[in-house]
């Protein structure tokens, strides 16, 4: 793993309206399962399957790109009709992904160079980037008052940090199963959340 596996911004949220994150969750979940899963079975002292080095990164990148596109489209839909302050807040939250991952790139690259351990990037990129995604989700969930998004961020941050205690390929198994599973559960719960909110809106409009 190296900088090419950098997760793209997961969403550009608005503070008004409601964002349907099911497609984004599905895209990111597939990226974790197939991207990190491919690394889990092909890396380590005794790999299960011999895969081209580019394949895990390609699978991860394709899923992350798809999830990002879905997230941006959903967030833009939610921003329609929002006031100037709400739109600005959404743009700033989106830009926070760029600045956060730029800082992460500098931190990991600088640490590996200072210690003379370029192999550290194989461990640090998947775990630290997953941790950062979780922290950013925490902020987005709080800004959007979305408990599910906040809970998913908590799960991603904790599991990604815990994976640091494991070596290769075990950490990739944790990211694939726990991270991918977290996105899958979130996608199911998102459907229920939206249905519940829709039901309340219909009731309120009819009262």
Explain this structure.
- It is built from six helices and no strands.
- With 207 residues, it is mostly helical.
- The chain has one domain.
- α4 runs parallel beside α6 (170-206).
- The N and C termini lie far apart (55 Å).
Q: Which shape, going by the Cα principal axes?
A: globular
Number of distinct helices: 6
Distance from first to last alpha carbon: 55 Å
* Relative helix content: over 70%
| Average pLDDT taken over every residue | 81
Transmembrane segments: 53-75, 87-111, 123-140, 147-165, 171-189
Keywords: Membrane, Transmembrane, Transmembrane helix
Protein name: ABC transporter permease
Helix/strand layout:
Blueprint: H1 22-42, H2 54-79, H3 84-115, H4 120-144, H5 147-162, H6 170-206
List keywords for this structure.
single chain; 207 residues; 6 helices; 0% strand; disordered C terminus
Short description:
This protein has 207 residues and is mainly alpha-helical.
